[in-house]
Design brief:
The chain is α/β, with parallel strands linked by helices. The protein folds into 2 domains: 131 residues, Response regulator (Rossmann fold, 3-Layer(aba) Sandwich), CATH 3.40.50; 72 residues, Orthogonal Bundle (Arc Repressor Mutant, subunit A). Helices cover 58% and strands 11% of the residues. The chain is built from 10 helices and 5 strands; from the N terminus they run E-H-E-H-E-H-E-H-E-H-H-H-H-H-H. A 5-stranded parallel beta sheet has the order 2-1-3-4-5, with helices on both faces. The N terminus is likely disordered.
Length: 222
């Protein structure tokens, strides 16, 4: 089994899971030759017990049907653990419903055996890009949450109305505060969030964080 210590730059870490030793060797050789670092496992159980300890892999390349846990089970476990790893499934005898379910659950690709090397490399390269996008989104969400924590309860309330698209005058009418006061709060929200426009504020806060901010504001108001 390959160590997870990142000793040199690579295209990314790929965990190969297949109960066929010949397939494992072939995939390992191909991916390492291309420039990927690899981890090789003969079962999903071994992978789940080992690979997610400290430094999650970028891509999980797994057979769909193996003794023990299936690929769908593996996918569910990764989601429960909050893994950002992209999943590419390979299989020689999967049913259409398994393929559909895997893709609905977020698999990046599904390759039917036999497949050629270029097809596999394209799928893995795309999966690495998806993983990078997920990581970047997670970082943006973390930064946005830190900025939201700077807001006072009153500023969160005003931010809530701003995200709903209301103007200062509209907020003033149903809030009861003077329009000038609302304008001041609005300016403080923009300053603390580091944005210059409502469009930038909405771009900074993904839908989930907007919803959380709105719920927090409603709880505070209640």
């Amino acid at each position: 089994m390959t160590s997870m210590t990142r000793v040199s730059p690579s295209l990314g870490w790929v965990a190969i899971i297949d109960d066929d030793a010949a397939v494992r060797r072939s995939l390992d050789k191909l991916l390492r030759h291309e420039g990927y670092q690899t981890l090789v496992y003969e079962s999903t159980e071994r992978f789940l017990a080992d690979a997610l300890g400290s430094d999650p892999v970028d891509v999980v390349l797994s057979d769909m049907r193996m003794p023990g846990r299936s690929g769908v089970d593996l996918q569910a476990q990764l989601q429960v653990r909050g893994s950002l790893a992209s999943i590419v499934f390979i299989s020689g005898d999967s049913r259409p419903d398994e393929i559909i379910q895997a893709m609905k659950n977020g698999a990046v690709d599904f390759l039917l055996k036999p497949f050629d090397g270029p097809s596999l490399l394209r799928a893995v390269a795309h999966a690495v890009q998806v993983r990078q996008q997920r990581r970047a989104q997670q970082e943006r969400s973390r930064q946005a949450e830190e900025l939201c924590q700077r807001l006072t309860p009153r500023e969160r309330e005003i931010c809530h109305w701003m995200l709903m698209g209301y103007s200062n005058q509209q907020i003033s009418r149903f809030d009861g505060a003077a329009s000038a006061t609302i304008k001041l709060h609005r300016a403080r929200v923009m300053e603390k969030m580091g944005v210059n426009s409502l469009a930038e504020l909405m771009a900074l806060l993904p839908p989930a964080q907007r919803d959380a901010l709105i719920k927090d504001s409603e709880n505070t108001a209640g």
